[in-house]
Write a structure and sequence with these properties.
This protein is an alpha/beta fold. It has four domains: about 5-155, DNA polymerase beta, N-terminal domain-like (DNA polymerase, domain 1, Orthogonal Bundle); about 160-245, Beta Polymerase, domain 2; about 250-335, DNA polymerase, thumb domain (Beta Polymerase, domain 3, 2-Layer Sandwich), CATH 3.30.210.10; about 350-585, TIM Barrel, CATH 3.20.20. The protein has 25 helices and 17 strands. The strands form four sheets. Strands 11-12-13-14-15-16-17 form a seven-stranded parallel β-sheet. Strands 2-4-7-6-5 form a five-stranded mixed β-sheet, sandwiched between helices. Strands 8-9-10 form a three-stranded antiparallel β-sheet. The protein is globular. The protein starts with a helix and ends with a helix. Bound molecules: 2'-deoxyguanosine-5'-triphosphate (DGT), calcium ion (2 copies) and zinc ion. One calcium ion binds near residues 187 and 197. 2'-deoxyguanosine-5'-triphosphate (DGT) binds near residues 265 and 266.
């Protein structure tokens, strides 16, 4: 975690605690400051070293907040924050993970009932105590009871977007350690699952002890969980990181094994048994001349182990990308003789632009020109401006009404003249609970493209959700179905539609289904992408960027699409601006 992120997290915690104690206005000032500190392109500690004025030079960071940032770098803590923490000793992240429970509710329930943890919250709801508190009713209580289990599960797993940077940092660190011949991530991180139980790292080295010593000394490690011979676990940024050190000759076999998934490994092992081969984390062994293949881990003649491709080859299988190793047909596809039975998955470099982004016209932090310039800077061929339309569930009054959309069209047109890349003017319209689009058809028709997303009524039943999304994708002006379920990973379940039905309707209507690459969303997920592609629908991989920095999230979208077996031809963002215009119609 960068120090900018660290400071931004503190300011957000500050905001939550202030809000919980009933302070008005200040919390949003702290949140805005946090956002700009996070986005600030240079290390904030340099500014802090120059003093309060320098820090206050950051957009939307006032003197009061700037002086707290300086205090933090000078003393290691912020006195007022420490005071708030002791005044309100609650597990804020866990409690606010319960849908419908915000900092204000946490503050009120602490005040009235002394609730500090999820367990205490659940107990209070079960005892009927919450509905007795002024301002709360049975509805809040029922909501708590319904949503605590999801929040508890969520607490056990880290979002990919939080774990992946930890893994990347560990990889970079270990690659420079003496005696490390190879280093790779394995497990769910390598398969790019949306949530991660723990990060698995694998090193090839002859000196396991030295590598383990270096690993527990990793500056990002906050604590050592265990350290043994050739293996160790640490905690970094709240996530458990497991390291195993193996011999170079066994690295490929270990990588295959520890990449998983478990279900994939079982299918692979079963294939080996039929061929008098034994496959495990140490290698592939020919056991045809062995009396007891279970006599040890390395019995028989080693036929593979140094490389992962070699392991699959020994089993007459093609190597396949980790994202699809979930035993959902990839083992059979990799074993088939036919060329092309495995998908040629979408690559990050195939993406030529973003079709869902925001500017300061709605809730983004940057101008149209700044976002377009950043897209061009990345080497993109096109960029779509799709600010929020006004409608249900859109935060505050940041959404554009029809008049504002028309006004924005002129603003976009004036940027287009100087833009080095193709710029599309679109909108992120809202799908209401019944599936209607809440912006006038005439306005929608005037735009290059329409992304339509659900932002409200995200708890409705599965049948209603299916009907709603089918109706939306069939709307003649809608080009892309944005974040179809509205889920927020680890914090909101979102809609649970029948994806096959939605995908069939989308395919027939030529509406693309989005993989929203924001790591809080990853929506549609891999399974939904697979259903969409099977139904013949087109996929759009969009970041929903509210700042240039968020363009970097595209990798999470690409790898999520890969989990759904997406190939280049399935994905809208790989096409030329002319082809896109044709698709938008
Ligand atoms: P996670 O950490 O819960 O997000 O998921 P993974 O897939 O990273 O699982 P993890 O960390 O428990 O183990 C890493 C890999 O090791 C896993 O993907 C497959 C392999 N593995 C672990 N336990 C077993 C097992 O009991 N049988 C087999 N065949 N493989 C296993
Ligand atoms: Ca893992
Ligand atoms: Ca593990
Ligand atoms: Zn958006």
């Amino acid at each position: 975690m960068s120090r900018n992120d660290e400071v931004a997290d503190l300011l957000e915690e500050f905001a939550d605690l202030l809000e919980a104690t009933g302070v008005e206005y200040k919390p949003s000032a702290y949140r805005r400051a946090a956002e700009n500190v996070r986005e600030y392109p240079a290390p904030i500690e340099n500014l802090a070293g120059e003093g309060t004025d320098a820090v206050a030079g950051i957009d939307r960071v006032g003197d009061a907040i700037a002086s707290k940032v300086v205090e933090y770098f000078e003393t290691g803590s912020i006195a007022e924050l420490e005071e708030l923490r002791s005044e309100l000793p609650v597990d804020m992240p866990a409690l606010t993970r319960v849908e419908g429970v915000g900092p204000k509710t946490v503050g009120a329930l602490y005040e009235a009932l002394g609730v500090t943890t999820l367990d205490e919250l659940e107990a209070a709801a079960e005892a009927g105590e919450i509905s007795e508190v002024t301002g709360f009713g049975e509805k809040t209580e029922a909501n708590v009871l319904e949503n605590v289990p999801f929040a508890r599960e969520a607490a056990k797993r880290t979002r990919l977007g939080d774990a992946r940077p930890v893994a990347d940092a560990a990889l970079a660190y270990l690659a420079d350690v003496d005696g490390v011949a190879k280093v790779e991530v394995g497990g769910s991180i390598r398969r790019w699952k949306a949530t991660i139980g723990d990060v698995d790292l694998l090193v090839a080295s002859a000196d396991g002890e030295a590598v383990v010593d270096a690993f527990v000394d990793w500056p990002d490690a906050d604590a050592t969980i265990e350290a043994g011979t050739g293996k160790a676990s640490v905690r970094a940024d709240g996530t458990r990181v497991d390291l195993r050190v193996v011999d170079v000759a066994e690295f490929g076999a270990a990588l295959q094994y520890f990449t998983g998934s478990k279900e994939h490994n079982i299918a692979v092992r079963n294939r080996a048994i039929g061929r008098s081969l034994k496959v495990n984390e140490y290698g592939v062994f020919d056991v045809s001349d062995v009396d007891d293949p279970d006599a040890g881990q390395r019995v028989g003649e080693r036929v593979a182990g140094e490389t992962e491709a070699g392991v699959y080859e020994a089993l007459d299988m093609a190597w396949m990308p980790p994202e699809i190793r979930e035993n959902t047909g990839e083992v059979e596809a990799a074993a088939a003789e036919t060329e092309g039975s495995l998908p040629a998955l979408l690559e990050e470099g195939d993406v030529r632009g973003d079709l869902h982004t925001h500017t300061d016209w709605s809730d983004g932090g940057f101008t149209i020109a700044e976002m377009v310039a950043a897209a061009a800077e990345r080497g993109y061929a096109f960029h779509a401006v799709t600010d929020h339309a006004a409608g249900p569930g859109v935060f505050g009054n940041t959404g554009l009404d029809e008049a504002a959309i028309a006004e924005q069209a002129d603003a976009v047109a004036s940027v287009v003249d100087d833009a080095p890349i193709e710029v599309f003017h679109g909108i992120e319209a809202n799908i209401d609970a019944a599936g209607a689009i809440t912006t006038d058809d005439a306005t929608l028709a005037s735009l290059d493209l329409v992304v339509a997303s659900p932002h409200s009524a995200l708890g409705q039943g599965s049948d209603a959700a299916t009907e709603r999304l089918v109706r939306a994708v069939e709307h003649p002006e809608v080009d892309v179905l944005g974040h179809p379920t509205g889920r927020l990973i680890n914090s909101r379940q979102g809609l649970e539609p029948d994806f096959e039905a939605v995908a069939e309707a989308a395919a027939a209507a030529d509406t693309a289904i989005e993989v929203n690459a924001n790591p809080a969303r990853l929506d549609a997920d891999g399974d939904a992408v697979r259903a969409a592609i099977d139904a013949g629908a087109t996929i759009a991989v969009n970041t929903d960027a509210h700042s240039p920095r968020e363009f970097d999230n595209v990798r999470y979208g690409v790898h999520t699409a890969r989990r759904g077996w997406a190939e280049r031809a399935d994905v809208l963002n790989t096409r030329s601006p002319e082809e896109l215009r044709a698709f938008f119609g």
